[in-house]
Design brief:
Blueprint: E1 12-18, E2 27-33, H1 51-64, E3 67-73, H2 75-81, H3 83-97, E4 104-108, E5 119-123, H4 131-154, H5 160-163, H6 169-178
Parallel strand pairs: 1-4, 4-5
Antiparallel strand pairs: 1-2, 2-3
Helix pairs in contact: 1-4, 2-3
Length: 190
């Protein structure tokens, strides 16, 4: 079961990204500040719940969060600064868009680039441990999936409606057959 918070003294925001390992599309990140008593039985790491459950959770998280924000970094920027730095940048952009400034950032993963003067705690598999990080993972994933569904209409040959830009066999074969688009990350090998 997810813990409602890491600590109780400081206002904390969970942060997570989606799309880091994809061959196409932007990397998305979300920052979410939840009420201390927030609980929903479906909430978990976005990778462990179905698309249907993620889409049920998204409006609930958005409605009940104290604050939330979602941002993205383009494939061109990913190619320019690398995917790790782009993930940090997407998180920074999301944190910057929060209507309330958190006092502690809970980051999913083992590395982060400090944001302004806000303390942060990196938590490996944090989206499986803390509600705010799990909520951020759901928002980042659903916003990115929506974007990839839109792109799939422009480029149906890559199967983005189902693979969301990840390097599936079919997606890799489509790249070999049709080449890359402006939405592909040129620095990623396939």
């Amino acid at each position: 079961m997810l813990s409602p918070c890491y600590q109780k003294k400081l206002l904390e925001s969970g942060c997570d990204e989606a799309g880091r390992g994809c061959l196409a599309g932007p990397v998305y990140a979300a920052a979410v500040i939840l009420p201390a008593d927030f609980y929903h039985p479906l909430l978990n790491d976005s990778k462990k719940i179905s698309e249907k459950k993620r889409n049920i959770l998204r409006p609930i998280i958005e409605q009940e969060a104290i604050a939330f924000a979602v941002s993205k970094v383009s494939p061109k920027m990913i190619d320019k600064i690398n995917i790790l730095q782009a993930s940090f940048r997407a998180m920074h952009l999301a944190i910057n868009r929060l209507e309330i400034t958190p006092e502690l950032l809970l980051i999913d993963g083992n590395r982060f680039k400090s944001y302004k003067k806000i303390d942060h705690k990196c938590i490996i598999q944090g989206d499986d441990k803390y509600a705010s990080i799990a909520a951020a993972s759901v928002l980042a994933k659903t916003y990115r999936d929506d974007y990839m569904h839109k792109l799939a209409k422009k480029h149906p040959e890559y199967g983005w409606a189902s693979n969301k830009g990840y390097g599936t066999k079919a997606h890799r074969a489509a790249i070999r057959n049709y080449g890359r688009t402006d939405y592909h990350r040129l620095s990623f090998s396939f």
